[in-house]
Amino acid sequence: MDIHVVPVGVNYTDSDKFRSDVRIDYGEPIRVQDYWDHTLQTRRKPSPLTEEIKTRMSERVIHLDNPADDEWTEPLLAFHRNGPSARLFPALSDDPTPLFEEKKLADKLNALPENERQNLKEKSKLPVVVAQIGNHRPWAMDHTSYSLGSALLLGLCWIT
Hints:
Number of strands: 4
Structural class: mainly alpha
Number of domains: 2
Order of helices and strands: EEEEHHHHHHH
Largest sheet: 2 strands, antiparallel
Radius of gyration: 20 Å
Shape: flat
Number of helices: 7
Distance between the termini: 61 Å
Helix content: 40-55%
């Protein structure tokens, strides 16, 4: 049999929030037959197939090395996510750019030395403060806060 494994990265912008965005990225299929002999010989250590799947999955998933960093990096990622290129309404898109921009940012955060990470942790409180006092930048508004009425009003203004 010719079996292939397709690495798939599934990344939620806010997994605890209803209707948050999800970014899915499919990798190139991995042909299991190419690794079959090695897999049978390496029972005690990770097989080359397992290592290849791990490598290809890590290219598609946003991952922070230290789970304690989640609390302060999420506001930074949200701040980046809601920048000038943010969409007004969620839509289906096959553009992987937002996913890979966010992954690049997370990888940079993972690579920071501890002293720089602590400094950035203190500075990261700014997006939280901005969110608490109210966001006065129209391009940085949360797209899930729009209602059907505001969408219709926007459409009517645009038509006239």
